[in-house]
Design a protein that fits this description.
Helix 12 (298-304) links the parallel strand 13 and strand 14. The protein folds into 2 domains: 7-176 and 370-385, Glycogen Phosphorylase B (Rossmann fold); 179-367, 3-Layer(aba) Sandwich (Rossmann fold). The strands form 3 sheets. It has a 7-stranded parallel sheet, with helices on both faces. The chain has helices at 20-27, 54-62, 83-88, 104-115, 134-143, 154-162, 179-187, 191-200, 222-235, 251-260, 276-285, 298-304, 339-350, 354-367, 371-385; strands at residues 7-11, 33-38, 65-67, 69-72, 78-81, 94-98, 119-124, 148-151, 170-172, 208-213, 240-245, 267-271, 288-290, 309-312, 331-334. The protein has 15 helices and 15 strands.
């Protein structure tokens, strides 16, 4: 790159492992010189993050990483050491901040950067709800400090529009996992691999398979899924089996409910799994993916492997990725808390030929929920603003 190339610093607290693909594609960009500004450790011990080493982040990110020190005042309130110095540095033309109102250094850095004539943006969830309180007003003021916002979803954009933000400053870039790598894993799986996995799980060839992944916590409402499993096997002619991939504080309660409803023999608790080849096989062989509670990136995970998604219809509590579910095309929303309606939606999708829904599931991910799309939007905004 030449010295006249636009230089952009993307400022995060740390880089979660699943974000590696989007930062990798940004850092190897030929048209804009992107840098990552972040610490190497998380304040959440269970969160998998990457660090500056090439073994962890890869050559593209490693050589474009500027380390700052995170000082956590409380669990949420953060001061990033040396961020003010970076905001004043002439090296960067554009700064993209993680739009978190609890990051004190961001408030100061963004004001100083603007005084120096730099363009500043937020990469943020924005509003998940209307938030008509003091915190909501503070959040609005904070967001107005930026020249524009990169958002995870259209719901957030619509709420911001209702609050008077200009549509010209709101850019929906969605979220992503590693679509290319996951597609490669999917292409390795054939009927034989699925049959062998069914046999290893002691599933019959005609069993209907429900899968659910994630930490077993109250907000996921796995207890309702056990209710649905019991209903499915009591009232229909098909036999349903449930695979739960994950662990968490509510696992014992879910197991106890499975025993109480006499469906424990129909449930496989796989525990935590981070091996993508195994996840690809389990999700792609299932008839339907169900999160009875709040859903996020797991929706993208399932759709990438061609499996339709069922979750509840209270959009105020979901993460933005619920928007990838197109009701009736690649999944369904059941009436929140209504087990009978969940059962109906599960039956609907498990009765469909997977070949008929496979492409429809993957289409939205291939179009929007991938790192290449995110980069394309960010590039366009920066280039048009130059």
């Amino acid at each position: 790159m030449n010295n006249n190339t636009t230089k952009v610093a993307i400022i995060y607290h740390y880089i979660a492992h699943y974000r590696k693909p989007v930062f990798d594609i940004l850092c190897k960009s030929n048209n804009i010189d992107y840098y990552v500004v972040a610490d190497e450790v998380s304040n959440i011990s269970s969160l998998n993050v990457i660090n500056m080493s090439e073994d962890s982040s890869g050559a593209n990110i490693s050589k474009k990483w500027i380390k700052v020190k995170n000082i956590w005042i409380t669990k949420n309130i953060l001061w990033q050491k040396d961020l003010i110095k970076l905001a004043l540095n002439k090296r960067f033309d554009y700064l993209i901040f993680l739009g978190n109102i609890y990051f004190i250094s961001t408030w100061i850095a963004i004001v100083l950067a603007r005084l120096r004539g730099k363009k500043v943006y937020f990469w943020t969830h924005g509003f998940r709800n209307e938030e008509l309180n003091l915190k909501g007003r503070i959040r609005c003021y904070f967001y107005r400090l930026a020249h524009g916002m990169f958002l995870y979803g259209n719901r957030a954009k619509n709420i911001l529009l209702d609050k008077g933000f200009s549509p010209d400053k709101l850019y929906v870039i969605y979220n992503s996992l590693d679509f290319n790598a996951q597609t490669q894993e999917l292409n390795k799986i054939g009927p034989e691999e699925k049959d062998n996995k069914r046999q290893s799980l002691q599933f019959d060839a005609d069993d209907k398979i429900i899968i659910s992944t994630g930490r077993i916590t109250k907000d996921k409402k796995f207890d309702l899924l056990i209710d649905a499993l019991s209903n499915l096997n009591e009232t229909g002619s098909d036999t349903y089996k449930l695979i739960i991939v994950g662990d968490g504080p509510d696992k014992a309660l879910v197991e106890a409910k499975a025993h109480a409803l006499s469906v424990v023999d129909y449930v496989v608790f796989c525990g935590e799994c981070y091996e993508e080849s195994e996840l690809a096989l389990l999700i792609s062989m299932a008839d339907v993916f169900v999160i009875p509670g709040d859903i996020g990136l797991s929706a993208i995970h399932s759709l990438t492997y061609g499996t339709p998604v069922v979750t509840h219809d209270d959009f105020t509590t979901h993460k933005p990725e619920f928007e990838a579910i197109r009701d009736g095309l690649n999944g369904s929303f059941y009436k929140s808390g209504n087990v009978a309606d969940m059962v109906e939606k599960i039956r609907f999708w498990s009765s469909k030929n997977r070949g008929d829904v496979f492409d429809q599931c993957r289409l939205v991910v291939a179009e929007f929920y991938n790192a290449a799309y995110q980069k394309r939007v960010i590039d366009t905004v920066i280039q048009e603003d130059c």
